[in-house]
Design a protein that fits this description.
The protein is of the alpha+beta class. It has two domains: 176 residues, no CATH class; 197 residues, no CATH class. The chain has a six-stranded mixed β-barrel. Strands 2-9-1-10 form a four-stranded antiparallel sheet, covered by helices on one side. Strand 6 and strand 7 form a beta hairpin. Helix 1 runs antiparallel to helix 6 and helix 6 packs parallel to helix 10. The relative contact order is 0.17.
Length: 386
């Protein structure tokens, strides 16, 4: 009968482990995809504004901000690239993104452009220009000043080529100083650092930027940061809808799991408690004799409790073994069709520990019925059997 209850516990616990493994594996995979793609943490302004350096400093000091950088006007953040050594010669019109330390779209070990002569090309632009890290390309921009068309050229060293997902269009990551220089030149101002002539009245102090690049520290901070910006009257766009879908799925699956777990464990606990009560009744003669020869009530109560503990441990071990087999089968059957890697079903070591703890506590509570029955056994009942 004890073996039957071990099997019953395993039959109850194993499906719950599989259900929670599916819940944790699917949600974790979806959340991991959101976390690994920094674009899901991006917060983009709608339209143009007037953002001062003071505002950028205040936002960068927030704990939920991972990266922020000013951006110049979109029309000024473009440049023409060409590789003089490539044949046939091809001109690539590229978009420029300001970058700095902590750039979320680049790999950790990627060098960051520091001056006005360094860039990181997108994979698309590098392919068209037929260049790689270490090569030098020509960048040029044009303007019309005083009715005269002018064009300047700037040699740019390619520090690295960004991964394909960093920026899918033709573009490059550059320092903010280079972007400011390009915008000033297009506005007709001189850029002494690069030897470009023009109006000397350019004001770099108290410059206001129309846009910004902003990334939250985690996907859970996106909604908080969005709300904070909207309270300042800044309209932004985020991927919070996709994030909310994953979070909602996590909440709903958790609720379903706990409902099933509570119902299943409650039913099993009542069944086990009734069995231990009946088992104490069957062993009533033996237990009364033990009381008669000197065993105390507390010692007798341990009889159903220890039986419950052994049942819980053996049932948990069997259920865990069954789950591991099911997990391997599920992860081999579905990852290709669901495009979720190899973690459609997954449990962490801490989950096994919690399952063991809950099972043990439930069985010990269930043994209270048997313990109550055992405590009522009097030594006198065993006199007739001595």
């Amino acid at each position: 009968m004890s073996a039957c209850f071990v099997l019953a516990l395993a039959a109850t616990l194993a499906p719950m482990l599989v259900l929670f493994g599916l819940k944790f594996g699917i949600v974790s995979s979806m959340a991991e995809e959101l976390i690994q793609d920094p674009r899901n943490r991006e917060i983009r302004p709608v339209g143009s504004g007037h953002y001062e350096a003071k505002w950028f400093r205040s936002i960068s000091q927030r704990n939920d901000v991972a990266f922020i950088s000013p951006r110049t006007r979109a029309i000024a953040a473009t440049i023409s690239f060409q590789n003089p050594e490539a044949r046939p010669l091809q001109i690539v019109e590229a978009e420029l993104l300001p970058t700095a330390e902590g750039e979320p779209l680049l790999s950790v070990n990627t060098p960051i452009p520091q001056g006005m002569g360094e860039i990181i090309l997108s994979r698309s632009a590098a392919h068209k220009l037929k260049v790689s890290a270490g090569d030098t390309i020509d960048g040029s921009i044009a303007r019309v000043l005083g009715g005269k068309k002018e064009r300047v050229h700037l040699p740019l060293k390619v520090l690295a080529v960004a991964n394909p997902g960093a920026f899918v269009r033709d573009g490059a990551f550059v320092s903010l100083a280079l972007l400011i220089a390009l915008e000033d030149y297009r506005d007709g101002h001189a850029v002494p650092n690069l030897g470009w002539s023009g109006n000397l009245s350019a004001l770099n102090n108290d410059r206001r930027y129309p846009r910004f690049r902003l990334y939250a520290r985690s996907i859970n901070d996106v909604a908080i940061l969005r709300n904070a910006l909207e309270t300042q009257g800044i309209e932004v766009r985020t991927r919070s809808a996709d994030i909310e879908i994953v979070q909602s799925l996590d909440r709903n699956l958790s609720n379903i799991f706990w409902i099933i777990a509570i119902v299943a464990l409650s039913g099993f606990s009542l069944s086990l408690g009734s069995s231990l009560w009946a088992n104490v009744d069957r062993k009533r003669r033996e237990l009364s004799v033990m009381r008669l020869v000197g065993f105390r009530t507390n010692s007798i109560i341990w009889f159903p409790v220890m039986q419950a503990i052994f049942t819980s441990v053996l049932g948990w071990l069997l259920a865990s073994t069954i789950y591991l087999g099911v997990e391997q089968g599920l992860n081999q059957m579905f990852p290709t069709s669901l495009n979720m890697g190899n973690t459609i079903c997954q449990l962490l070591p801490i989950h096994y520990q919690w399952a063991a703890l809950f099972t043990l506590v439930s069985c010990i509570i269930a043994s209270a019925l048997g313990g109550l029955q055992a405590s009522r056994i009097e030594p006198s009942e065993g006199v007739r059997d001595v």
